[in-house]
Structures are given as structure tokens and as C-alpha cells.
């Protein structure tokens, strides 16, 4: 799901099915209000103003609808992330801004953040119990960004971008899945300071650390 969301964000996927979009919008609102477990396809169809049969023609199962809604939210997150990091002037600034943007966007997202807080057994297991697939997708995304920094001469060629991306991804995932008793994740400056002190140094060649 994340793999496709990332691909859609980078390739600017076309969305032309108006009925499907209405159902996705209705499902988003329904899931935010009632949660996924308590919502039915009938609820979503009613909110979208279409028949139950029409809803099932677009999405064969509730699980398929849930996947598409969550996928769209992650796609919006990737879109937002790519826009946010463009505001930074240096590779270090982009790491700091990207880290804070990622944690903030996901935690504050009404659907994804809400599910992690209220129905963690719906979303969290898919993030940590899928054989590492979710983390691997995000790791590849981060590694790709770091590799572009290397190609632009902003990060030393001596830096192992695959390993750095792995560590950055796991730090972010840990904060998302397990709330911190030390770092206030609602304090953006505190989150940025964590990135400056512990993530940015990973961009330097070993001998410079």
C-alpha cells in the first residue's frame, strides 16, 4: 500500500472517477468520526449519497476501501513532505525539516494519527508485522532522497545512504508506534533539535564525526 502511495505521489496519479472520489471522501469522514471497525460500507455509501450496490462496484470489500483511503492519506503525506523539504537550503536542514514534517504530518493526520491513537490494532500491526515491508518502503524513499543529495554534492560519497536511511526510518517509526516519555512530539522545535543532534551527524563522513 505504501509502495503504491509513494509511486502515486512521485508520478502524480490521475483521479478521474468522481463516484470513487466521493466514496473515498465519505469514507475518510466516516472513519475519522466513527473509526474503521464501527463503520460499514452502507454507512459510507449513505454519506456519499450513492447506493450500497454502487459502492461495492467501486470497492469490492470494506478492506479494499480502507486500503484506498489510507493509501490516499499516505500519498498526501508524501506530497506534503516533498513540498516541505524544498523550503530548506541545505541537506542538513532538509533532514531536520523532513523528520519534523514526517512525525507531525502522520501524528496530526485526522485519520492515520487518529487510528494510531484510538484503534492501534487496526493500523500499527500493518506497520510493524508485515515482514518489514512498510519500513522498507519508507527506507527506500529516504535513501532515494539522500542519494540525490550525494549526486548534488551535498552529502559525502563516503556516507552509506542505505544504512543512514534505515536508521532514520527506524527512529521515526519508533517515535510513531511508541509514544516518548522524554521527547514531546507535539513540540516541533524539540523534535527538530533531536534531528539536529542525532540525525544530521549521520550525514558526515566517519572521520569528521
Automatic annotation (TrEMBL):
HTH tetR-type domain span: 17-77
Gene3D superfamilies: Tetracycline Repressor, domain 2 (1.10.357.10)
Domain of life, source organism: Bacteria
SUPFAM superfamilies per the UniProt record, alphabetical: Homeodomain-like (SSF46689), Tetracyclin repressor-like, C-terminal domain (SSF48498)
Keywords (A to Z) from UniProt: DNA-binding
Molecular function terms from GO: DNA-binding transcription factor activity; transcription cis-regulatory region binding
DNA-binding region residue numbers: 40-59
Record flagged with keyword DNA-binding: yes
Name recorded for this polypeptide: TetR family transcriptional regulator
Annotated source species: Amycolatopsis alba DSM 44262
Amino acid at each position: 500500500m505504501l509502495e503504491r502511495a509513494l509511486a502515486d505521489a512521485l508520478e502524480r496519479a490521475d483521479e478521474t472517477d468522481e463516484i470513487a472520489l466521493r466514496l473515498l471522501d465519505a469514507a475518510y469522514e466516516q472513519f475519522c468520526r466513527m473509526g474503521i471497525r464501527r463503520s460499514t460500507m452502507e454507512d459510507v455509501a449513505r454519506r456519499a449519497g450513492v447506493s450500497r450496490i454502487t459502492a461495492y462496484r467501486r470497492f469490492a470489500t470494506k478492506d479494499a476501501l480502507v486500503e484506498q483511503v489510507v493509501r490516499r492519506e499516505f500519498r498526501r503525506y508524501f506530497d506534503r513532505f516533498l513540498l516541505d523539504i524544498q523550503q530548506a537550503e541545505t541537506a542538513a536542514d532538509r533532514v531536520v525539516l523532513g523528520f519534523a514534517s514526517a512525525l507531525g504530518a502522520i501524528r496530526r493526520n485526522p485519520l492515520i494519527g487518529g487510528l494510531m491513537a484510538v484503534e492501534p490494532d487496526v493500523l500499527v500491526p500493518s506497520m510493524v508485522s508485515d515482514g518489514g515491508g512498510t519500513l522498507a518502503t519508507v527506507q527506500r524513499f529516504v535513501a532515494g532522497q539522500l542519494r540525490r543529495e550525494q549526486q548534488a554534492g551535498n552529502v559525502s560519497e563516503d556516507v552509506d545512504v542505505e544504512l543512514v536511511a534505515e536508521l532514520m526510518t527506524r527512529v521515526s517509526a519508533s517515535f510513531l508506534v511508541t509514544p516518548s516519555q522524554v521527547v514531546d512530539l507535539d513540540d516541533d522545535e524539540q523534535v527538530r533539535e533531536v534531528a539536529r543532534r542525532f540525525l544530521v551527524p549521520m550525514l558526515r563522513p566517519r572521520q569528521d564525526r
